[in-house]
Design a protein that fits this description.
Helices cover about 50% and strands about 5% of the residues. It is mainly alpha-helical. The chain has one domain: Orthogonal Bundle (Recoverin, domain 1). The protein is globular and about 30 Å long.
Length: about 100
């Protein structure tokens, strides 16, 4: 299995984030996420709630990075994190 840490670099994450961030606000709104992935607002609200560390209802770059570095886990992000307040930048985030 390929680890996301080996293929996901800061540069690639920034490019992906900018593709989502249509209004260049530095945050991803639920509508920007839906415009890329589709789906319904209620489902995406649940996803955003799991990764929204500052509880502003949007996804900033740090939250996006944490989410992307956890995609290869076998359990959901919420199961990996006991509390939103305990999430910290992974030690090897710049690898």
């Amino acid at each position: 299995m390929i680890s996301s840490k080996k293929i996901v670099t800061d540069e690639r994450l920034e490019k992906a984030f900018k593709m989502f961030d249509k209004d260049n606000s530095g945050k991803l709104s639920i509508h920007e996420i839906i415009s890329v992935f589709g789906g319904d607002e209620e489902s995406w609200k649940k996803v955003i709630e799991q990764i929204d560390l500052n509880n502003d209802g949007e996804v900033d770059f740090n939250e996006f990075k944490i989410m992307m570095l956890n995609v290869d886990k076998n359990v959901g992000i919420k199961n990996n994190i006991k509390s939103k307040r305990t999430i910290t930048k992974p030690e090897n985030i710049d690898d």
